[in-house]
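Changelog-linked ticket: adenosine-5'-diphosphate example.
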Amino acid sequence: VGGETSEKQRKLLSILAEESNRLISVVNSLLDLSKLEAGMMGYDFEVTGIDSLIKRAVAEITPLLEAKQIRLESAVGPSLPQVRLDPERILQVLRNLLGNAVKFTARGGQVRIATKAVNGKLEVSVKDSGPGIAPDNLVSIFEKFNQGSRLGPHTRQGTGLGLAIAKSIITAHGGKIWAESELGQGSTFIFVLPC
Ligand code: ADP
């Protein structure tokens, strides 16, 4: 609209766009946190399949996967039970887990998303080949503003709110979320929802 842009201007504009998106996501996380602390997080539950949500979350993250040459394996079962869920909120959890998996995995690594039905529950896991999480941090990373003990380049890229919000969303669904990991062996984030 503003007329011709030079290569340099295009680069600057794309940095501005990226930073604006980052700001929007920080503001949204803070708003979600305020809502859930005030008990005002609204849920629109429906009985539906989770596979289309996983497909959407994977499609959204694909450009980042390609940029980092991370291989994504999707082991999403064909005949999963339907679950009572709020699609937008569960999509938010999937975005957070896949986003973290890609953020913490080095170029050329692997991410795997899998689903299975166990004992009347639907289980979703997101596994990565990233640096892993120290045993002491496996539980505390689900607390708000907690970014683990290792401060690094990733700290700046986040708020430490994603997992706290994910936990609150999964709990509101009557489910559970946790992490399994060994340092140097990647991490797996798992959540279960009652069917
Ligand atoms: P953020 O990613 O914005 O810092 P989160 O609440 O999503 O906040 O995650 C909290 C912390 O948990 C991260 O800062 C990181 O230390 C740890 N973490 C989350 N996902 C992973 C992962 N896939 N691999 C290693 N560490 C992780």
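Closing comment: Example verified and attached. The pocket of adenosine-5'-diphosphate is lined by residues 96, 100-101, 104, 128, 130-131, 133, 141, 146-148, 158-164, 187 (CB under 6 Å). Strands lie at 46-48, 71-75, 83-85, 110-118, 121-128, 176-181, 187-194.
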